[in-house]
Amino acid sequence: GTAGPSHSAVVGNKYYTCCGGGNINVVNTDTGAIVAAIPVDSGGYFARVGTKLYVTDGTNDEVNVVDTVTDTIVATIPVGDGPFYSITAGTKVYIDNLNAGTVSVIDSATDTVVATVMTTAATYLTVAGTNVYVSNNTSNTVSVIDTHTDTIIATVPTGDTPYALNTIGDKVYVLNGHDNNVTVIDSTTNTATNTIAVGGNPLYVVAVGEKAYVANGVDSSISVIDTIDEEVIATIPLGFSPYAEVVFGDKVYVGGTSGETDIAVIDTVTDEVAETISVGLSPRRPSAVPAHAYAN
Predict the structure, then answer these.
(1) What angle do CA 175, 271, 135 make, to 5 degrees?
(2) Cα gap 178→176, rounded to integer Å
(3) Which residues of the chain have pLDDT under 50?
(4) DSSP code of 80?
(5) 22 in helix, strand or coil?
(6) pLDDT at 9
(7) What is the rounded distance in angstroms from the CA atom of residue 192 to the CA atom of residue 22?
(8) Do 20 and 3 touch, CB atoms closer than 8 A?
């Protein structure tokens, strides 16, 4: 699968996470020590182009550009109202502005906004081929943006309240929170080809090999989908309500919603919980780096 928007980033042996103590904290992955703290007013998600990180700041409606060589902010880019998720497509960064229903397109060569794409309610982003797919949770659609022209070339109907989406092979999996199912979009035709029933309030999806793992927030479970046959082949019960997942080797690390203190480690060979790790905080978005898994 293609990595979706991330609340952290890894560059070399440095791990960037936001925003403990009002900072983007930089951790040396070899020693585990914090080696830098970059002050920000608020921080959301990271997108990387080369040695630069683009970090959304919803408080100030801007994007902070971090130079990972010096670990300093080298540019601040005004965007739309309520920037949150960000994703890289080639040399451009796409920012969904939650309150404006738009997507800001940043050219990383100049660190300026070169286009603003109107959607109905930009919620979440993924990339497939040369297109960016944007879920619109109030209009029950996905907008398809051609990254060459930065225009919408297709609008695909989904289920009720599409939220997270991810690219798996040549398909885009869209989680419909109120319908408790997944819309499968063929990215070669930009049409919906299947609907897969999962658990209550699906929130996040990752892929390992030919399987997709869907976190069901209400059911406290993970639905495992065979991405070849496009059917659920297992349901993994958890001891908490899942929020987000990260893949690390052949394991899926699952963080809980606010207030939960555990991370479940799923063995993707057996599709069972192999271990539950108590981290003593709300690990909503676990992150994986070489030799380590972190809780954010």
Answers:
(1) 10
(2) 6
(3) 282-284, 286-296
(4) S
(5) helix
(6) 82
(7) 42
(8) no
| The two structure tokens encoding residue 167 | 């690219």
Report the length, in residues, of the chain.
296
What residues contact 114, with CB distance under 8 A and at least 6 apart? 92, 105, 106, 107, 150
Alpha-carbon gap, residue 156 to 71, rounded angstroms: 40
- Longest pairwise C-alpha distance within the chain: 48
Instruction: Record the tokens describing residue 74, joined without a space.
Output: 């080298």
Would you state the pLDDT for residue 280? 55
Pull the structure tokens for residue 145.
């943006």
The owner of tokens 């020693």 is 31
- Give SS3 for 128: strand
pLDDT digits (tens, 9 = 90+) for 175-205: 999 999 999 999 999 999 999 999 999 999 9
Are the CB atoms for 201 and 214 separated by under 8 Å?
Answer: no
Q: For residues 45 and 7, is the Cβ–Cβ distance under 8 A?
A: yes
Contact call for residues 254 and 236 (beta carbons, < 8 A):
no
Handedness of CA 69, 71, 75, 78 (dihedral sign): positive
- Contact by Cβ (8 Å): 180, 215: no
Distinct helix (H) and strand (E) counts, the chain: 0, 30
In this prediction, residue 284 carries a pLDDT of 45
| Structure token pair of residue 213 | 């793992």
Q: What is the pLDDT of residue 292?
A: 46
Residue type, 179: D
Model pTM above 0.85: yes
User: Alpha carbon 59 to chain centroid distance?
Assistant: 20
User: Angle at Cα 79 formed by Cα 77 and Cα 82, nearest 5°?
Assistant: 125
Sheet holding 72-78: strands in order across? 46-49, 52-57, 62-67, 72-78
Give yes or no for a cis peptide into 18 (omega within 30° of 0).
no
